[in-house]
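Friendly challenge for the regulars: who can give me the C-alpha cells for this chain first? No prize, just bragging rights.
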Amino acid sequence: MILAMVASSSLFLSSCYCDKMAVGNISHDEELVHVASERNHHFIGGLVVKHDKVEDHLPGVNDYVVERKVTFWDGFVTCITCGIYSPSTTKFYVPKNNPNVVVEKQKFQSKAYQGTLKK
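First reply, four minutes later:
Bragging rights claimed.
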C-alpha cells in the first residue's frame, strides 16, 4: 500500500516533459512567433500515434522550431487511463523576421510572439 502511494506521488510530483527541436538556420537567441498548435494522440503507451505532418501546419517554411510538451493535464489523463491514451501538445514557432509571418502580439512574460502565417 505504501509502495503504491510513493509510486503514484512520484508521478504527480514529477515535472512536465518538454522537448524543443530547431529545423533549418535558427539561432538560440532569435525572436520566434508561435503560429500553430496541435494536440497529439498516442494510444497503447505510444504504440499507435495519430498526428499531422509539420508541412500541414507550416507550408513552405524551411526554418522553424517544434516544441513537444507533456503538460500536467496530459500526464494526469495518461495516469487516469493507465497509459491507454496519452496526449501531448506540439507548438510550432517561426522566426519573427520570416516574410510570411503576421505578428499579432507579444506573449505575456515571454520572448515569443503570437501570430499567423500568410496564406
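The mean pLDDT is 75. The radius of gyration is 17 Å. Your move, everyone else.
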